[in-house]
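User: Hi! I'm a student and our assignment asks us to look at how structure tokens line up with a sequence. Could you show me two examples?

Assistant: Happy to help. In each example below, the sequence comes first and the structure tokens follow. Example one:
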Amino acid sequence: MNQLEKIVAPVKDELKTLEKRIDFILRENVFKEKFTGTFLNKGKKLRPIFLFLLARALGYEDNDIVDYGIIVELLHNASLVHDDIIDHSSKRRGESTFNALYGNNIAVLLGDLLFLFSNKLAIEKRKFEILDVIVEKNENLLIGEIEEGLNAGNVSLTEDEYMKIIKNKTASLFELVGEISCLLTNKIDSDCNAIKKMSSLIGLSFQIIDDILDYTSEAKKVGKPVMNDLKEKTLTLPIIYAINKDHSLKEKVEKFFSDVSNDALLYEIRDRVVELGGLKYAKKKALEMMKQTRDSMFIIPPSVYKDSLLFLVAFMEKRSF
């Protein structure tokens, strides 16, 4: 049993049901031929796994938890379709992206359709307190995407601005998991605040580690292009830290942004980020957040689900894909 299988073990039935139902949703619609055989059902599904484990750990026993997992996963996949268009990415999870297959115009509409599938299921649940949260996190996610786009090429982006962007863009769906779990289990406000903070920290650290992997991984391993953030003129924490340590690096980045096909300069910048400790700093920040996450779990009673949540945090700390 590998580490991910160990994490999933207590909720493997829920995950299998989710995968079957998402596959059904993708096959039983008017554009089914556009969705089948794509990356959509190939990911790690960390967000629904996190939801299943957290809700169960807090005492929620109803099988409709799978519905909420589908809502979260479809939202995530819709955002990835749009991400790939914005980033001009041709690969995702080792498969061709929607924009590579069908062009940007059709891809953006297919992404919109995934958002619609998610929101339609959320409305059908008729739990309007949860629906309010889903709409709010939808909005946060899109705000984060827009903020990132508006800051493309901004070599003066600060760490605080970066954190604000990833809190909206990535942490919002992890926060959604925490809030859904709280609402389903009727937790008191103080417990919910701790759970929401824990969920947000997981999302923030997940994105920081993802940004580190953009520097350190091989494309084959992560299933998408590497060093892609700089090619898309997006500054992430490693290079923000490095520029603050050596302001001359800003000029090199500006020069690269004027010609993003200059691979020699790209890898010179990467090496300088490593030399200046950008990756170490980012990893330290992510690990600090993970420690805070573990410390926040004191409110969750002991169970196999809590054990798997702790395994999940450890997996995210060490992940290489």
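Example two works the same way, sequence first and then tokens:
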Amino acid sequence: MTIAIYGKVPQNPQDRQLIKSLFEHLAEVYDKILVWQPFFDSVKDVLSVKSCIVTFNTKEEIKNSVKILLSLGGDGTMLDTVDYVIGTDIAVLGVNLGHLGFLTTAGREDIKNLVKEITCNDFTIEKRPILEAEYPAQITGRRFAVNEACFLSTNRGSIIDLEVFVNGKYVSTYSADGIIVATPTGSTAYSMSAGGPIITPESKCLCLTPVAPHNLTFRPVIISQSDVIKVRIPDTDNPCKMLLDGYSVFEQSKGEVEIRKSEYDWNLVRLGDQDFYSSLRNKLMWGQTPKFLTGNM
């Protein structure tokens, strides 16, 4: 099995040493380690093993040979891997070098055991749905999202009217700061902050979550993952911007976009006995008393 590494520039010296240690452990097991070129350039000065490293820049260079892609960073870094693994069998294993890292599987303290669990096949792979956006051909940019597609007003403090349809049926016109189409994976991201529900990963559904709606009767709506959502932007002086996993795709004053579940899945690695509920307890602190109430600040 060949392994690949994708990451962002480490922000502190401690993380650079952790990355050095990770490469040393991997080199004991793998004859070849594929590393994303920009990441390699940012850490090569601290690496003690380089002879086994081969760099890559495109999906085509890894799609047929790699089984697991290690993502070194936070959740944002993991989401960026979609461009390199979509349409392949590559599974993504996140190592959290950021803050919360809800999607990541391992932390800084797990570096040594991480390699052992991979080589012993002590992991499972979860298949997570991906959203695909269809919009006018003259607009170029990413079309896939793991977490969510967002439609937001470009003018701060101004609401926008968005007409929403599901399978061709008119749902409503949302007057709000925006609307989110979230996957179960994205239910613990922006959608949750906007008041949406937490959805277990295996649930075959999507969520429409309004962002600060003008009419308080608007509430999040759960729909089937097989449904096709169309968001129509009426002709207005207040443009709408669409973002896929936080990346701005376009700003339009008029038009429509269709969002549907992609034919592709995002393969996510879970080590050992980890599961979704342990992530809720350990990372979202479910069932724990806030520190400010216990006096242990």
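Here is something you could point out in your write-up. The two ends are 46 Å apart (CA to CA).
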